[in-house]
Amino acid sequence: MPTPNTPAPRSHTADIDLLRVFDTLVRIGSFTTAAKALSRTQSAVSMQMRRLEEQLGVQLVERGSRKLVPTAEGLQLLPLARQMLRLNDQLFRDVDAQEVSGSVRLGSIEHYATRVLPALIAEFCRLHPRIHVELQHGVSSLMHAELGARYDMVIGIGPVGSGEGLPLSKSRIVWAAAPGSSTHLQRPLPLALNPEGAMLRDWATHALDRAGIPWRIAYTSTTVTGLEAAVRAGIAVGVFREATISKRLRILGAKEGLPALPESEAWLATAPLPGRKAAELLEAFLIHRLRKSQR
Length: 295
Fold this sequence. Notes:
About 40% of the residues lie in helices and about 20% in strands. The chain is of the alpha/beta class. Strands 3, 4, 5, 6, 7, 8, 9, 10 and 11 form a nine-stranded mixed sheet that branches. Helix 1 (about 15-30) crosses helix 2, helix 1 (about 15-30) crosses helix 3 (about 40-55) and helix 2 crosses helix 3 (about 40-55). The mean pLDDT is about 90.
């Protein structure tokens, strides 16, 4: 029997709820956003994370950096934690064999929302007629910030290796102008870009600033369709993902005196919530179909 000065023995039973908090933190990379995804306060998520670390006797995440990352011990635990979560969720799926119903809120960048997802969602809804999918398109960073609150999953783009979600595909970011246009020779360089805060806008303007090329905003739109229209009309130069750029535009580069831009990565981020079978089914379906389309 332990004396008053002897610490209580460490529990050897892992708390599934705490493991889910850990998994969500690693997936999302932020205490604030993970708290929204789990419908809890940030302080509650932080406290639960410390409880799990105390249970296991190791530190699992690095705190204080701009983006939360797992420690070496956390990386070692992560596959085991996810296996336990899958087994836990499978247990409840097997107990409740009724047809899955519910709604899923999916946010996506424009290319996937307009050219890829409609057909896939139609197929998914035929397979699962009691699941309703709400699809919205928007800006990656804004949608990711609302993951778990406004969206159950998000398809977005970011720098390669950003860790914001499961990687789907990579593509160069390129400058583009209308064929035969000399718009790229104008100074300041007229640009057709997304609103302030959009990733491609930041990449383009920062690259021009570093290269010492003056620029001005000639056209702003939240849609690729609008930006392409402005570029085709010859009133501005635009930036687009090379993988999805219109064939009616001409790609520009160093030969035209424009600086190189980073490579981008499309990703799928989810807000894992216990009991959300509809979201789990859609996530598995999209991962399978989108990865298959990249082969």
